[in-house]
UniProtKB/TrEMBL annotation:
SUPFAM superfamilies: lambda repressor-like DNA-binding domains (SSF47413). Gene3D superfamilies: lambda repressor-like DNA-binding domains. CDD domains: HTH_XRE. Pfam families: HTH_31 (PF13560). Residues 7-60 form the HTH cro/C1-type domain. Residues 25-34 have a biased composition (Polar residues). Residues 16-41, 102-122 are annotated as: Disordered. SMART domains: HTH_XRE (SM00530). This is Helix-turn-helix motif protein.
Length: 122
C-alpha cells in the first residue's frame, strides 16, 4: 500500500471528504487528490495539520500504526479522562468496557481478546 492509499484510508476512517481535509490543512481539493494518488508527496506542514484532525501520520508514512495513539478527538478525550481518574475508576471503566465488548474474561485474566487496565499501564 502506498502513502497516498494510506492517506485516503485515514481520511475515510475519519469520515472526511477531500474538500474538508484540504480546507483543514489549508490546501486545495486538487492537491489532496494529488497526495492520495501519489502524484505529489505530502508536505510536512500538511502532515502536521492533518495530525490535529486525528490522522495517524506515522501510519500514513510508514504503514505501521503508532502504538498507544488515540485515533479521534473523542478517543483523545476519553484517554485523558481515564489517565486522570483514580485507580478504582479505571478498574470500573475497564470492567465495563470488557463486559460490553464480550470480553469480560480478559479483564479477569482468563481471555486474550482485550487487555486489562493493568496490562495497558505496562
Amino acid at each position: 500500500m502506498t502513502i497516498g492509499e494510506r492517506l485516503k484510508e485515514e481520511r475515510e476512517r475519519l469520515r472526511l471528504t477531500q474538500p474538508a481535509i484540504a480546507s483543514a490543512a489549508d490546501t486545495t481539493k486538487q492537491t489532496q487528490h494529488a497526495y492520495e494518488t501519489d502524484r505529489t508527496p505530502p508536505k510536512a506542514s500538511y502532515l502536521a495539520a492533518i495530525a490535529i484532525l486525528g490522522v495517524d501520520v506515522a501510519y500514513v508514512i510508514t504503514g505501521e500504526r503508532a502504538l498507544n495513539t488515540a485515533r479521534t478527538p473523542m478517543e483523545v478525550a476519553l484517554l485523558e479522562n481515564y489517565r486522570h481518574s483514580p485507580a478504582e475508576v479505571q478498574r470500573g471503566v475497564s470492567m465495563l468496557l470488557a463486559q460490553t465488548s464480550g470480553a469480560a474474561d480478559s479483564v479477569a485474566g482468563k481471555g486474550k481478546k482485550n487487555r486489562s487496565s493493568e496490562e495497558v499501564k505496562k
